[in-house]
Amino acid sequence: MAKIILLGTSSSIPTKKRDNTSFLFIYKNQLFLIDCPGSIVQKLLKVKIDFRKLQNIIITHEHPDHIYGIISLIHSQMYFNKLLNIFTNKTCIKIIKKLTKIFDLDKPNFLKIKFFDVFENETFYKYNDLELSALKTKHIKNSFGVKFTFAKKTIIYSSDTAFNEGILQEGVKIDYLIHDCTASSSYFKKYPQLYKMHTCSKDLANYLQKNKNIKKLIPIHFLLLDKKEEQRIKNELAILGNKVIFPKDFSKLRL
Ligand SMILES: [Zn+2]
Ligand SMILES: [Zn+2]
To answer: 102 C-alpha vs ligand 2 centroid, how far in Å?
Structure first.
């Protein structure tokens, strides 16, 4: 059985109750952090996971809300962890290497950081029955989502993306889809530039209503500047009934 713990569910602008999007994926003692904003160490403490045990991090693109916590995490782990594997794209690898230099944290005799370019092979991680692969998104150059397969189950995390059927791999059974659901259709209409990089709740709901291969949706990456926005998003997703798991920060799911 796998476990997902959502550490954050907001877009680039956090709210009182929601920090930038990131989550943990745990399967048979393998622990992954997916995206890295905020104080990851404090979030791990809150969900009772020892930060020294976190050795695998996936960073889906270089927008600050997905990467800015990495330097603080490396600093915290410096003397307590021997190895950190970072799975990401070439641009993020460059940024993290630069940051560790600037902050004088590139000391291999303490923490060794190993970088993996997720686009180099079809799967970027494989151990026993767990396989992870990168899916190209419609967001920025080389941004990607993640497909997790294990025990005949599939989870797809879209990360940030304009609605893109390609990532949903038509015909493939998806047990859990963790998808960009930045705002409602009325918010997108007010700021149409959002369509180029993100997904609105109405488009997501319409597509999922037709697609029977996707079992559960976990919408994520909410932009809640307008007080009524959360309710508007919920209203647009309501046609999906119990197919939707509307998350809070620190929600835990067993799959
Ligand atoms: Zn984002
Ligand atoms: Zn982004």
So the answer is: 24
Share of the chain above pLDDT 70, in %: 100
And the tokens for 121?
């092979």
Alpha-carbon distance of 63 to 140, in angstroms, equals: 9
Note the pLDDT of residue 107: 82
Please indicate, yes or no, whether the overall pTM of this predicted structure exceeds 0.85: yes
Q: How confident is the model at residue 196 (pLDDT cuts 50, 70, 90)?
A: very high
Contacts of 253 (CB under 8 A, 6+ apart): 3, 4, 5, 6, 176, 218, 245
Q: How far is the CA of 135 from the centre of ligand 1 (A)?
A: 16
Q: How many CA atoms lie within 13 A of 101 on its CB side?
A: 6
Does residue 159 fall inside a structural domain?
yes
How many angstroms is it from 198 CA to the middle of ligand 2?
8
Q: Does residue 255 lie in a domain region?
A: no
Count of domains in the chain? 1
CATH number at residue 74: 3.60.15.10
- Host domain of residue 179: 2-249
- In this structure, is residue 254 part of a structural domain? no
State yes or no: pLDDT of 171 exceeds 80.
no
How far, in Å, from the CA of 205 to the mean position of ligand 1?
20
Give, as one character, the DSSP assignment of residue 227: T
